[in-house]
Design goal:
The chain is about 40% helix and about 20% strand. It is of the alpha/beta class. The strands form seven sheets. Strands 12-15-16-11-10-18-19 form a seven-stranded mixed sheet, sandwiched between helices. It has a five-stranded parallel sheet with strand order 7-6-5-8-9, sandwiched between helices. The N and C termini lie far apart (about 85 Å). Bound molecules: nicotinamide-adenine-dinucleotide. The site of nicotinamide-adenine-dinucleotide has 30 residues, from α8 and α9.
Length: about 500
């Protein structure tokens, strides 16, 4: 049995069910067809939403700490399955095993966070201007939450949303990427095991608390358009996000958008260059450049550019490209042929726009049938149109600056606003970058690359990245509705602002 078949089996998939439908699933490792599974119809998807609505009516009345207990059990199940689910992430989306395992660790971390949160969904008490009155702000469950996810974080993004949504009292409908449905089905199984343990302990979870919808854009559209879906949390390209935003807004629904990034690093002459080189390399080539937070633009002081590029080229030449399941591989495959073509098109466009390839760009032998590429460095004379767009591949555009304000201007002069960073040991430079006139991104780091966020912070970005925040901090508030309550315990009815209405 091949390694891929063994991993599928470890995750509970059996041959018969794997080939019962028409959605073909390929492994980017070698392009082999792993499965062809059943897709839902639009009618089935609509039925799922109605079931979710019924689940909401029950789940919202379960005390939040009890809801947290279910998420605690989910975290335990994930701990037990870390190895097998991490491997499945690797064979389905191609990221190297350490990153596949890291993605599952991120799921465990958010479950821990959500369990604590289940006892901390704090509201406010507010001083009333009227005697004998009490005002307070209370957070209530919102309703069914639709989660639409991208291929490159096939499971972690779901868990960021689901762990919080469930603790906040909401059922979840998950539409994973059509390129990575198997990991979603594996998570569904893991979740069901947590529910079994929850019920064995005497609690009850409504049917339909988590439902997974398999299919493409048309199935995602059902979630987007259905009035009963209170929140649509969509992760993916800006192209997808702008359609989703418009359609959810048209029905006055709520959306949480996590879209494309075009992340930069500024390296100043005061930087620890050794640290910077490590961060550039992980940021630009990790996950084969297929993270929303991947480093795509290097804005470097002209006095150190040649030195940094020389060192980077040396490192790039030493990186092992190949089978992501093999322990010493650092760069796995691109997701598919389309991603490979997009990368080649971007390299050609950069050339036309005056860029010069410093290294990389070629297809390499990895595992036969997969799309493996050399990570690429391109020097650009200016921030031209190709640099201003997100190409989901390991291309690093290098530009120079002479004054830090100019560097910040270049960094901000793109449509996206996800992640950013500066490498410097000068506190003035660092604080300027973090100030109101510094980076305009949702994430701004000092002496840390743009990718690899922890779950404790709110994750998301500005401008075309969509403005959503999920995961840590107070992101939970997106999954609840805020109610301002005023109680009059006096025997009179004074009106606010001293208004008189005597009759
Ligand atoms: P994609 O936009 O092609 O697909 C994402 C998901 O949206 C899929 O499940 C797809 O079926 C669904 N979809 C597409 N059109 C839809 C529509 N009109 N209505 C409803 N659903 C629709 O993205 P991808 O190629 O899977 O992922 C790569 C992109 O995702 C990159 O742009 C990357 O930056 C972005 N991303 C962003 C974040 C973030 O947190 N900001 C995280 C991961 C990925």
């Amino acid at each position: 049995m091949s390694t891929i078949q063994t991993i599928l089996k470890k995750n509970g998939f059996f041959r018969k069910e794997l080939f019962s439908g028409d959605l073909k699933v390929y492994s980017p490792i070698n392009g082999s067809e792993m499965a062809s599974i059943n897709q839902h119809s639009r009618a089935e998807a609509e039925g799922t939403v109605l079931k979710s609505k019924e689940a909401f009516d029950k789940w919202r009345n379960v005390p939040a700490p009890v809801r947290g207990e279910l998420v605690r059990l989910l975290g335990e199940e994930l701990r037990a399955e870390k190895e097998s689910l991490g491997q499945l992430v690797t064979i389905e989306c191609g990221k190297v095993l350490s990153e596949g395992l890291g993605e599952v660790q991120e799921m465990i971390d958010i479950c821990d966070f959500a369990v604590g949160l289940s006892r901390q969904l704090y509201g406010l008490t507010i001083a009333s201007e009227r005697p004998g009155h009490h005002m307070r702000e209370v957070w209530h469950p919102l309703g069914p939450v639709g989660v639409i996810t991208a291929f490159n974080f096939p499971v972690a993004v779901w868990s960021w949303n689901a762990a919080l949504a469930i603790v906040c009292g909401n059922p979840v409908i998950w539409k994973p990427s059509e390129k990575t449905p198997l990991t979603a089905l594996a998570c569904d199984r893991i979740f069901k095991r947590a529910i079994e343990k929850f019920e064995k302990a005497g609690h009850s979870a409504p049917e339909g608390l988590l439902q997974v919808l398999i299919g493409g854009r048309d199935i995602g559209e059902v979630i987007v358009e259905h009035k009963a879906v209170a929140l649509v949390s969509a992760t993916g390209s800006t192209r997808m996000g702008s359609v989703v935003a418009e359609n959810v807004a048209a029905r006055m629904g709520r959306s949480l958008l996590e879209l494309g990034g075009n992340n930069a690093m500024i390296v100043t002459p005061k930087a620890d260059l050794e640290l910077a080189i490590r961060a550039i390399t992980f940021g630009a080539v990790g996950t084969a450049g297929q993270r929303c937070t991947s480093l795509r633009r290097l804005i470097i002081h002209d006095s150190i550019k040649d030195d940094v590029i020389e060192k980077l080229v040396q490192v790039y030449m030493s990186l092992k490209i190949g089978d992501p399941l093999s322990h010493n591989t650092l760069i796995g495959p691109l997701i598919d042929e389309g991603a490979f073509n997009d990368m080649q098109d971007a390299i050609k466009a950069a050339d036309v726009q005056g860029g010069g390839v410093v290294c990389g760009g070629m297809q390499v032998k990895g595992v036969k049938g997969g799309y493996y590429v050399e990570p690429t460095i391109i020097e650009m004379p200016r921030q031209s149109s190709i640099v201003r767009q997100e190409t989901f591949a390991p291309i690093l555009y290098v530009m120079t600056y002479s004054d830090l304000n100019e560097a910040i201007e270049i960094q901000n002069d793109v449509p996206q606003g996800l992640s950013s960073c500066i490498f410097t040991n000068d506190i003035r430079e660092a604080e300027l970058f973090l100030s109101a006139s510094g980076s305009d991104c949702g994430i701004a780091n000092v002496n840390i690359g743009p990718s690899g966020a922890e779950i404790g912070g709110a994750f998301g970005g500005e401008k075309e990245t969509g403005g959503g925040r999920e995961s840590g901090s107070d992101s939970w508030k997106a999954y609840m509705r805020r109610q301002t309550q005023t109680v009059n315990y006096s025997r009179s009815l004074p009106l606010a602002q001293g208004v008189k209405f005597d009759f």
